[in-house]
Specification:
Order of helices and strands: HHHEHEEHHEEHEHEHHHH
CATH superfamily of the largest domain: NAD(P)-binding Rossmann-like Domain
Helix content: 40-55%
Strand content: 5-15%
Number of helices: 12
Shape: globular
Distance between the termini: 43 Å
Strand order of the largest sheet: 4-3-2-1-5-6-7
């Protein structure tokens, strides 16, 4: 709390609902956002509840915000599968991480008939052939990470499944989709080579830049693989932050179903824009290039129209 209050004392001059709006990320959850927002209010003497997102529900937060990035990633995955005339039902997924993002992937995948059968933590990885699909398993992960976020072995002990210490699950062959969802530079060239050799078709980045540049370029060169970039796939978290701000401005709290529907529509649009941009420039179904082009064009057009040169 003291750290958050000190940090906000230096930061508050540079943020605001119409200036810049921070949100939580690794190591900054609901507790820290609460301390930061409380100090902001103390310093400013105003109720500007659009200044931070990821707030608690009692003071302007949005339903499904913690799960939003994971939910959005699965919705994006659905669009990729549709493009390939495939469906998510029955798919097995390997992910890294089991924080809010990974947990959101697990939960939404289970709702849609898929299953996360591998997930990795700092101490190793879990292989659960049945998948993390029950409320008991999902709730245990919440409890496990709250008590000791550095170890996922307790999951294996609880449910009698395989735990492989000191390793990541990249390269396993009995899955359909890889979704790195933990941290930056999680997948390096050695892991990328294992992923390519596994024969898995879908590589969906979720965390912020989880693949090193050389590894990502290598995976993009694999003709049997479709690679989706984090800058598009993980936009659901930022998107629901915007929805949280919209609710703040309207002094409303939308239902979880309303937020989820908006998120789903948002991810469909992001995938479509990326695919169309790649197609327009003769790059086929290159989602990495398409996301880069679509993002660049949006910024460039805005700058040109405002004379920002």
């Amino acid at each position: 709390m003291r750290f958050c209050q000190s940090f906000m004392t230096a930061l508050y001059r540079y943020i605001g609902p119409d200036i810049d709006v921070p949100a939580g990320d690794m190591g900054v959850g609901g507790r820290e956002i609460g301390y930061l927002y409380g100090q902001y209010r103390r310093l400013k003497g105003v109720w500007e509840n659009g200044v931070l997102t990821g707030k608690g529900l009692s003071y302007g937060g949005s339903l499904i915000r913690p799960e939003a990035t994971g939910y959005g990633a699965v919705y994006y995955l659905q669009e990729v599968l549709k493009h390939e005339h495939d469906t998510i039902e029955g798919k097995k997924i390997a992910i890294s991480g089991y924080g809010n993002v990974g947990w959101g992937i697990m939960k939404k995948a289970a709702q849609l008939g898929a299953a996360v059968t591998y997930f990795a933590g700092p101490d190793g990885y879990i292989h659960d052939p049945d998948g993390v699909i029950t409320d008991e398993k999902l709730n245990f992960i919440l409890k496990m990470r709250a008590e000791d976020p550095m170890h996922c072995k307790p999951y294996a002990d609880k449910f009698g499944v395989e735990f492989v210490p000191g390793a990541k699950c990249w390269g396993v062959k009995d899955v359909d989709i890889y979704m790195p969802a933990a941290m930056q530079n999680d997948v390096r060239m050695e892991s990328a080579e294992k992923i390519a050799a596994s024969g898995v078709k879908y590589y969906i980045e979720v965390a912020n830049m989880p693949t090193t540049n050389d590894a990502l370029n290598y995976l993009r060169q694999q003709k049997h693989m479709i690679v989706a970039p984090s800058k598009a796939v993980n936009a659901g978290g930022v998107g629901v932050s915007a929805l949280e701000m919209a609710q703040n401005s309207e002094r409303l709290v939308w239902t979880a179903e309303e937020v989820d529907a908006q998120l789903h529509k948002m991810m469909e649009t992001i995938h479509r824009m990326s695919a169309e941009a790649a197609e327009e420039y003769g790059l086929g179904y290159d989602l990495v290039a398409g996301a880069n082009i679509a993002g660049f064009k949006k910024v460039a057009e805005a700058m040109m129209e405002q004379g920002c040169f």
